[in-house]
Amino acid sequence: MLTKASTSNIKQLWSLLKCTDNCGKRLNLLSECGNAEDINKHFASVATDPNYNKDNIITELTRYISSSVNTAESEASYSHVFIATVLSRVRKTSTGSDGIPYWVFKECAGELCVIISVLINFSINEGCVPSVWRHAIITPAPKV
Known about the structure:
Helices cover 47% and strands 0% of the residues. The chain is elongated, with a radius of gyration of 22 Å. The protein has helices spanning 10-19, 36-46, 54-66, 80-88, 102-107, 109-126. The chain has one domain (22-134). The protein is mostly helical.
């Protein structure tokens, strides 16, 4: 149907596009993830850092969030707005060791940006990178 349209007539292109089944419909990928309990179980299963100390991390994060004084000149302070922008521009990639697809970061940038900015700033400022962040899965792509 669209092959009959002229590229010089934009109005005609839009009217033909609106007649198709895909116009105005957005694929809801989040519904494929299951309910909140399933998602929570998934993240609990991939959180396998042997150096993880919940009480120590929560104490340090609480101290970091509540302190409003910047002590170092080179202290990292990535804003949640910047992190949201970066997350919303994530390109299609393979999943990491946590199994989270790229579109979760892209589609949920607004919801994830605050906590991710806190984690990134805390990690950089404390000089402590979680061991899980130091590993990558490299998948060779065959050249066709």
